[in-house]
Structure of Cytochrome P450:
Amino acid sequence: TAHNTDVEHTDVRHLDPERADLLGDEAVADPYPLLAALREHDPVHWSAKYRSWFITRYDDVAAALRDDRFSSDRITPYRRAKLEGPDADPRVRAAFEVLEGWMVFKDQPDHLRLRRLLSRAFTPRAVTRMTSSVEEIAAELLDGIVARGTGDVDLVGDFAYPLTASVIADMLGVPRADREQFKDWSDQITGLVFGGMGDATRHTVGAQGMAELTSYLADLVRAHERAPADDLISAMISARDDRDALSHDEVISTGVLLLFAGHETTTNLIGNGILALLRNPAQLALLRDRPGLVDGMVEEALRFDGPAKTVARVMGDDVELRGRHLRRGERVFLSPSSANRDPAVFADPDTLDITREKSGQLGFGIGMHYCLGAPLARLEASIAIPRAFARLPGLRLTDESLRWHPVLLSRGMQRFPARFTTP
Ligand code: HEM
């Protein structure tokens, strides 16, 4: 496969405006050659097609993520511009209003207020307590896959997705019986968050999912307000400090954020991580021999082919960077996937090496918005990936032409077909 060859990396053909398109077929299948070309030849790249900047060098991505002139509120300007007119669908507007309540889309001081309160509920201890639950869910799913007796598996649809969705649902306190429903809603919301801004069908479907999930969570939050339980929804309701607490609506909106953020990305980490090991059998053998390398493997999976292809910002001010003028109001995509392959920071960046010393990968972002769920994502991946290899002997790819989500923001497979040996 082309994904590991160095030859193409400096190929300027990729900078041909027609081809410098992260949503072109080639780049969706393997974005790294294009990202390498941008990093080298045009690190602050203006895309006329997306009317956006693409920033690809490690130092620039890290600095921009820490710079509040790069605003996180990319929802409000869009809602004001597109969803306020008389023809705008009120349900789409309502859905965008829920997104506007998410801390990930807020600037200071609103962001820090929400983050501080959520941190009181979503604690490292609350994550550690999920360990046995993650182990049980992984074992159940893998038993089910083996019990089918076919030796076929879709590692995304049959394993990573149901695992990560069940874990965050358990943690929040969503009843098991309701899981299937919220999976559908969450899929629909994905179209809203990751989908092309302005894609009307995805917006209508996403808005419907958002309305249903929000009203479902509203009932659940009310039930928890009457009868607190030992779960994250109850912890969010009671999270307060001497000045402040989350409101009823904020608990609902943060619940939607956690459900969503909790599994879309983690599914991709587990899928991409298993794929990277299947394509690098020596690294897989090393992990088998030295299970203690599991944490290093997860960090390397985040670096080598992590789920955050880009993170979006909107310029809150005019900024000059490498001689280019980024103007207030312009959209910017900062690319962790590219930063994580920057040869200025990582030796031999296109090689998977689970024994790398301290990584510094940017797969969870950096700065104020650094991923709050990183400990949970690491826990899930560190259990799921080794368990899959242990329970599915002879696991192998069936189809090298994998289908990847054709989106700018995230890197993950739609399906991940594989085979294993049955007794
Ligand atoms: C923020 C990636 C899993 C909750 C972020 C950001 C990134 C990221 C890049 C920063 C976004 C920005 O700067 O605009 C990932 C990846 C994951 C993952 C790659 C899995 C491998 C999770 C999980 C949860 C979670 C499991 C929770 C259950 C959040 C929250 C924020 C966030 C709440 C917003 C933090 C803030 O704005 O202060 N994540 N995430 N994430 N993530 Fe994750």
